[in-house]
Amino acid sequence: MSKDRDEKDGKSLLLELVEKAKCWVALEVLKRSTLVERREIVVRAFREACAYHDDENALLWFAWLLQAIQEDEDSRLELTEAMDFLAKETAKKSAEIQTILIKADIAKGLYLELPNFRLEPSRYADQPGTRLATLIKTKKAMLEAIAGGWRSAPTDDVADEFFMFIYKVDSGPSVASDDRELINEIIRKVTDVRFPLARLMYTLRNHPDLYADILAHAWVKNGYCYEYRSEGSHVGLILGAVGDFYKASPEATMLLGRVGAKILVADHQLRNLNKGRQGLIFGPPNLEFVRDKDNPKFDEVLACFKVVVFEEKEFHQQFEATRDRIIEAKKSWTVPVRIKLRGEFTFRYKHQITLPRTEDI
Fold first, then answer.
1. Which of 138, 156, 174, 182 has the fewest CB atoms within 10 Å of its CB?
2. Does a structural domain hold residue 345?
3. What is the pLDDT of residues 247-299, one digit of tens each?
4. Where are the alpha helices (DSSP H) in the chain?
5. Are strands 357-360 and 288-290 parallel, antiparallel or unpaired?
6. Is the CB of residue 18 less than 8 Å from the CB of residue 64?
């Protein structure tokens, strides 16, 4: 790869950052290097700073490493004039995700090389030294990059590898309480409104005992803000009741974790009500779960269906068949959810809607 190809526009934010930091020797070396070589040079300097427990410089070199990766990956993006706008945007998005994953993967490998602690020698020869936390700021930046891979990975399996890496760091025998709180903060930060709700659900289902309070809060908060609907039911129905709930205390945090688990089960139960209904010519129509504005509760939803019939008798038959189906399904539910069944019918070819029929189940 030529140097002209490496720096298409003649500019490099990496070089500008190094120059701003007045690292003149590093600047001259990097100027004479290709983008791939720059990554290798920055990694070596980063490792050296870590070996000396120099948190400030290690953090600086890690930030420069991320920028070096960014510039190297940007240079590989090929956009041609023949590509339309959508194709270009798709290529850019794909390259952006790939770069995030590369940064996260490199951060994982380098994190394993970090010293767990810094040994402070004792003033007395017959006493052991003191183990002190080390590279706090650097570790935080690296874990944030790894968390970015968890959020942006194209599949849940790949994302789970980054998530479990963070947990293994958190559960290590040498992790201090301050480090654990740092990791909690990183997870809270990454699970903002940009975090895929389906991935939060996946993580809660597959790792119900890991950060359940934080993930449940993120799911509730994000789902409530965006009125997220899962296929076949409306998660927003039961998210609304706890949408503004935040961990004001340890007790509240534990409660939210339990609520989050119940939400998963309740949503699964509601979705199962409509399974197997597609393709049937006869029988009740699929249910439409909606928010009951007059009585919004966590454990109660309003299930509606609308039909067009010739006679009112047909409507009542369908209503009762739907009610019986819900009653039968509820027998196996482990999380009780009260259903208020509401149906409306319209005379065919006459745009006259009768009063709805409503029944608590």
1. 174
2. yes
3. 445 555 566 566 666 776 777 787 777 765 543 334 455 677 665 555 555 56
4. 3-6, 13-20, 24-31, 35-51, 55-74, 85-111, 136-152, 156-170, 177-190, 197-206, 212-226, 236-239, 250-272, 312-330
5. unpaired
6. yes
One-letter amino acid identity for 269? Q
The count of domains in the chain is 2
Q: How far apart are CA 111 and CA 330, in angstroms?
A: 49
91 located within any domain:
no
Partners of 199 in beta bridges: none
Calculated CA dihedral for residues 184, 188, 189, 191, nearest 10 degrees = 130
**For 111-155, what is each residue's pLDDT tens digit?**
999 988 887 766 776 677 677 788 999 999 999 999 999 999 999
**Cβ proximity of 345 and 354 under 8 Å:** yes
Whose tokens are 């270009």? That residue is 88
Residue finishing a domain among 221, 247, 272: 272
This prediction has a pTM of 0.67
Q: Which of 237, 254, 272 is the last residue before a domain boundary?
A: 272
Q: Which tokens hold the place of 98?
A: 């790939």
Domain limits for position 231? 191-272
Dump the DSSP string for 310-348: SSHHHHHHHHHHHHHHHHHHHTT-SS--EEEEEEEEEET
Enumerate residues 6+ apart whose C-beta is below 8 A from 33. Answer: 41
Find residue 340's DSSP bridge partners.
302, 360
State the amino acid at position 23 in one-letter form: C
Give the SS3 label for residue 118: strand
Check whether residue 354 and residue 286 sit in a common domain.
yes
Is position 137 within any domain?
no
- Do 134 and 53 meet the contact criterion of CB atoms below 8 Å apart? yes
The answer to whether residue 335 is domain-embedded is yes
DSSP-derived 3-state class of residue 349: coil
Rounded distance, CA 259 to CA 338, Å? 16
Q: Are residues 265 and 292 in the same domain?
A: no
